[in-house]
Write a structure and sequence with these properties.
By secondary structure, the chain is an alpha+beta fold. The structure holds heme C (HEC) and copper (II) ion.
Length: 364
C-alpha cells in the first residue's frame, strides 16, 4: 500500500513539473535557442559544461556500480574482510589532476567569451544606445540619432549595438535570453555591453535584479528589424511632431485631457531633449505591449490609465496628480486611449511587430 502511494506521489510531482516547465517554452524568451551573439556564446559554454558533467557522471557511476557488484557480500563470506590498503600516491595524483583538467576545459572558453563580450574596439563606429533602467520600465536614447524611445529597443539585425547602461534609482539587470548575456544596471557607474541579433523578430527582455514591488513586471523587448526598416524608423522618429494634433474628434478631446494631466511626464515626440520621467510615447501606437506587459489593446490602455497601481504596484506613474484628484474616469480614459493609439512614427508597425501581434492574437 505504501509503495503504491509513493508512486502516485512521484507521478503527480512529475506531472506538476511538466506543466510548470512547459510554460518556459516561449521561443523568443529562451537561452536554449540563441538568436544573437551573446546568447550564442553563453549557449556554447552551457553545452561544454553539460558535456563535462555528463562524462563525470557516467564515469563515476560506472566505477560505483562495478565496485558495488564486485565487492558485495556473498553467501558464506559474511565474516570475511577484504584486504585493507591505505595511501596510494598514484591514485591521489590521478584524482586531483582529472578535475583540474576538467575545470580547464570549462575555463578556457568561458574566459575567452568573457573577454570577447567586453570588446569595445568597434564602439565608436557602431550604433550606441544609452539605456536607463527605472522602476519599472526602460528608456532607450540614441545619442547620435538624437532620438529616444522606451520599452522597445529597435536595432538592425547583424550589427553590433553598444549599450551604455545606467539606472536612475536602484540596481536593475538587463537580460534578453535569446539575444544577450546579462548585465547589471547600476545607479553609480555605467556598464557597457554589445548585442547583436541574427534574425528579425521581437525578443523578450526581463529585469533580473530584484528592484521593488513590480520587479517581475519590468519586461521589455528588443525589436530586431532589417537595416532598411531601421533607417526608416530612425528617420520617422526624428520627424515626430511635438505639435501633433489628433485626427478623430474623440482623440482631440483625449489630447486636451492629455495636455492637462499627462504631458508633464510624457513626451509625444521622440527628441532626446526631453527629460526621462515617464516613457516617451512618440511611437506608442506601434508598441507590442502596454507598460511592457499587457496586450496592446484599447481596453488595456484604458485599464492602465484608470488604475495603474492595479497593473503595476508601486510604479512611478502613481505620483500623477490626476489620480489623487480622481479627475479621469473610464469615459475620459477612452478618449485619451484614442489619442495615444494615433501616436505613431511610421504609419504601419515594422514587420517584426506585425508578426508578433499576429502570434499573440493566435495564442489567445
Ligand atoms: C508623474 C509622472 C506621470 C504622469 C503625470 C503620467 N504618467 Fe504615464 N507613466 C509614468 C511612468 C513613470 C510610467 C512607467 C510605468 C512603468 O511601466 O513602470 C508611465 C507609463 C505610462 C504608459 C505606458 C507606456 C508604454 O510605453 O507602454 C502610458 C500609456 C501612460 N503612462 C499614459 C499616461 C497618461 C494617459 C497620463 C495622463 C492621464 C499619464 N500617463 C500621466 C509617469 C507618469
Ligand atoms: Cu528592475
Amino acid at each position: 500500500m505504501k509503495g503504491w502511494m509513493g508512486k502516485i506521489r512521484t507521478l503527480s510531482l512529475f506531472s506538476f513539473l511538466v506543466i510548470i516547465l512547459s510554460a518556459c517554452g516561449k521561443d523568443n524568451l529562451t537561452a536554449l535557442v540563441p538568436k544573437g551573439y551573446g546568447a550564442e556564446q553563453s549557449f556554447n559554454v552551457i553545452i561544454i559544461s553539460i558535456l563535462v558533467m555528463i562524462v563525470v557522471f557516467v564515469v563515476v557511476m560506472a566505477i560505483y556500480v562495478y565496485v558495488v557488484l564486485k565487492y558485495r557480500q556473498r553467501k558464506g563470506q559474511e565474516d570475511q574482510i577484504p584486504k585493507q590498503t591505505e595511501g596510494n600516491k598514484t591514485l591521489e595524483v590521478v584524482w586531483t589532476v582529472i578535475p583540474i583538467l576538467l575545470l580547464i576545459i570549462i575555463a578556457v572558453p568561458t574566459i575567452a567569451s568573457t573577454y570577447d563580450l567586453a570588446d569595445e574596439s568597434e564602439k565608436e563606429d557602431s550604433i550606441n544606445v544609452n539605456v536607463t533602467g527605472l522602476q519599472f520600465w526602460w528608456n532607450f536614447e540614441y545619442p547620435n540619432e538624437e532620438i529616444q524611445t522606451s520599452q522597445e529597443l529597435y536595432i538592425p539585425v547583424n550589427e553590433r549595438i553598444y549599450l551604455n547602461m545606467m539606472s536612475s534609482d536602484v540596481i536593475h539587470s538587463f537580460w534578453v535570453p535569446s539575444i544577450s548575456g546579462k548585465m547589471d544596471v547600476s545607479p553609480e557607474n555605467e556598464n557597457t555591453m554589445y548585442i547583436e541579433a541574427y534574425e528579425e523578430g521581437v525578443y523578450w527582455g526581463k529585469c533580473t535584479e530584484f528592484c521593488g514591488d513590480s520587479h517581475s513586471l519590468m519586461d521589455f523587448k528588443i525589436v530586431a528589424v532589417s537595416q532598411e526598416e531601421y533607417d526608416q524608423w530612425v528617420n520617422a522618429m526624428q520627424n515626430t511632431d511635438p505639435e501633433y494634433t489628433a485626427e478623430s474628434a474623440t482623440a482631440q478631446e483625449g489630447q486636451e485631457l492629455f495636455e492637462n494631466s499627462c504631458i508633464s511626464c510624457h513626451a509625444i515626440d521622440a527628441s532626446s531633449n526631453h527629460p526621462v520621467i515617464g516613457p516617451n510615447l512618440a511611437d506608442f501606437g506601434n508598441r507590442t505591449k502596454v507598460a511592457g506587459i499587457n496586450d496592446f489593446s484599447k481596453e488595456e490602455i484604458v485599464r492602465w490609465i484608470v488604475d495603474p497601481a492595479e497593473v503595476k504596484p508601486g510604479n512611478g506613474m502613481l505620483d500623477a496628480p490626476y489620480l489623487q484628484e480622481n479627475s479621469i474616469g473610464q469615459a475620459e480614459a477612452e478618449k485619451i486611449a484614442d489619442f495615444l493609439m494615433e501616436l505613431k512614427a511610421t504609419d504601419e508597425p515594422v514587420d517584426s511587430v506585425q508578426q508578433f501581434r499576429e502570434n499573440e492574437a493566435n495564442d489567445n
